[in-house]
Amino acid sequence: MSDRISSRLPARTQRLLLEALLEHYPDEVITGFLVNASISCNCVRGHAYKVRRYPEHAVLTSGEISHVVRDGARWLIHTEDFDCFVIVNFAPGGLQSLRHLIDLYETARMVQSRWCLQ
After folding, report:
1. Is 38 inside a domain boundary?
2. Which residue segment(s) compose the domain that 59 sits in?
3. Can you tell which superkingdom this protein's organism belongs to (predicted)?
4. Contact 18/9 with Cβ under 8 angstroms?
């Protein structure tokens, strides 16, 4: 990885990012990789890597989340803007925020609300 990435991330996070970059994601067009991700207002937020239009380590806030996919040990976040972000790791409370969002949409689906993930 470049010095620019390694100087901004702890060694463990560097390793997680490298592993995510080297994984194969069949049937997915990956927009980028997010480090220290969390969910807020139906969007994912994190430090961007390998995302066009964003410098490395810039804070990215996605468009609205359309659906969430668990791919092995990874979470893939799809947005209404047709982006697909790979979550490298979560910020403190980030995984709980994702699980809360999933629970909200599962509840909405059960009551046949229009506010549910596709």
Report:
1. yes
2. 3-110
3. Bacteria
4. no
